Amino acid sequence: RELVVLLVMCVVWGFHYVVLKTGVGALPPMLYAALRMSLVAALMAPFLRWRPGRMGPVLLAGLCFGAINYAFLFNGVKHATASAAAIAIELYVPFATIMSIVFLKERVGWRRTLGIAFAFAGVAVVALTRDPSAEAKIGLGVLLVAGCALTESFGAILVKRISGFRPHELLAWFALVGAVCLWPATFA
Q1: 159 has a pLDDT exceeding 60
Q2: Distances (CA, A) of 21 to 24, 63, 134, 145
Q3: What Å distances lie between residue 120 and 3, 76, 81, 114, 116, CA to CA?
Q4: What are phi and psi of 164, to 5 degrees?
Q5: What pTM does this model have?
């Protein structure tokens, strides 16, 4: 049962990039991002609770998980293929590991260090691949998606330091921050 759930999640997650590629083909990437975050913010609005003195890290994490990351991701998907973007977003894990070393003073051994190096090398191979399609600028797209992964890894470090918020409350704040930031970016 667990394997079936895992496989279904992987298929849905993979199809997500096909939907993104289709969406940014029909709408400007920033508009698509603003619409998406506005919809999530509207659905999650009942879970918004202001907590005086504790909102700074939540709002900063919202910039990382609701605004800047989607600006990078959706513009990256516009320029790369859906498959290249899906691979590049996996840099989140090595970036998060590096961030945990820098900010949380965690230690990693040589195997994880080697794994991080292989992950970056693999994404570089994808980014440097020449696509016969004239409209795909894979290198630029992969770089933008990697910027999304880096932004999200920084957000993960912030979230690790936030306490007293339930996951759905954080999601509500991230969506609201995203919507508030992405609309002006869309018009700009």
Answers
A1: yes
A2: 5, 23, 16, 13
A3: 28, 17, 18, 10, 6
A4: 85, 5
A5: 0.87
